[in-house]
Amino acid sequence: MKPVRATPRRSLTWPMKPTGRRVWLVLHVSLSVGWLGGSYAMLVMGAVALSRTGKPLRPAAYDLLHISDTAIMIPGSLGALVTGLVLALYTKWRVLRHWWVVTKLVLTVLAMIFGYAYTAQGVKAALAATLADPGADIGPLEPGLLVGSVVMLVVLFLATVLSVVKPWGRTRGGRGSRSRSRAMTRLQDQQTAMRDTRPGSAGRAGVP
Questions:
Q1: Please, are residues 84 and 104 in contact by the beta-carbon 8 Å criterion?
Q2: Per-residue pLDDT reduced to its tens digit, 132-178
Q3: Which pairs from 82-86 meet CB under 8 Å and 24+ separation?
Q4: Where are the domains of the chain?
Q5: Calpha distance 50→86 (Å, rounded)
Q6: What is the pTM of this model?
Q7: Using CA atoms, how far apart are residues 101 and 167, in angstroms rounded to an integer?
Q8: Phi, psi at residue 170, to the nearest 5°?
Q9: Structural element, H or E, at residue 162
Q10: 61 contacts: CB under 8 Å, gap ≥ 6
Q11: Is the model's pLDDT at 78 over the cut of 80?
Q12: pLDDT of 31-71, one tens digit each?
């Protein structure tokens, strides 16, 4: 009876070399930290615009908020997402095999949507209103931007904690993938043992 050959599953990705992994990891950490720092800077500028002493500085504060959003938050978020996906796809973690990776990906996408749909649009509206009149009343938009900056900062901080702690273990798909990998390894070991125990295999093994 012929042994069944183990057919490895084809994958769209391949293991990343250590040097490449370090380069992508440095890029990912740098962009993520820059995104987090930009969020904190926007929180500080929003607080200055909201304070009484900062009333004359409101146009400048919202202008800086707009520049920070355009030059730091948007490139930082896109860069963190792309480098994170590359690291997930081409290292042992993958995208959908560990709960911390899935959760971090969801938080990243939600933060990007929230930043564009709420924070960026609110900053543009506040800047347009205060350029015409630094003391203009923009209603709940001003404290709303401050709260939005706090929410963004908390979400990005949680994503950073997930990257360090890596909690919760594997997803259902990740457990299934590990089981298939172990089964494939056992089958390959059985095939090797069967070849080694065939009649005449020991004699052939000793022939130079």
A1: yes
A2: 888 888 888 888 999 999 999 999 999 999 999 999 889 887 665 55
A3: 83/24, 83/27, 83/28, 83/31, 84/28, 84/32, 84/108, 86/24, 86/28
A4: 18-193
A5: 40
A6: 0.74
A7: 9
A8: -90, 155
A9: helix 141-165
A10: 45, 46, 48, 49, 54
A11: yes
A12: 999 999 999 999 999 898 888 776 788 889 899 999 999 99
Average pLDDT, the chain: 82
Q: Do 170 and 98 meet the contact criterion of CB atoms below 8 Å apart?
A: yes
Residues 151 and 143: their CA atoms lie apart, in Å, by 12
- DSSP secondary structure string, 107-134? HHHHHHHHIIIIIIHHHHHHHHHHHH-T
Instruction: Output the six-digit token pair for 176.
Output: 């299934």
- Each residue of 89-139: pLDDT tens digit? 998 888 889 999 999 999 999 999 999 999 999 999 999 988 888 888 888
Beta strands in the chain (DSSP E): none
Taking 3-state DSSP, the helix, strand and coil percentages for the chain, each rounded to the nearest 5, stand at: 75, 0, 25
Are 61 and 46 in contact by the 8 Å Cβ rule? The answer is yes
Rounded Cα–Cα distance for residues 147 and 130 (Å): 19
The length of the chain is 208
* Of 157, 168, 166, the residue nearest 108 (C-alpha): 157
Q: At 98, give phi and psi (nearest 5°).
A: -135, 140
Nearest to 163 by CA among 37, 43, 25: 25
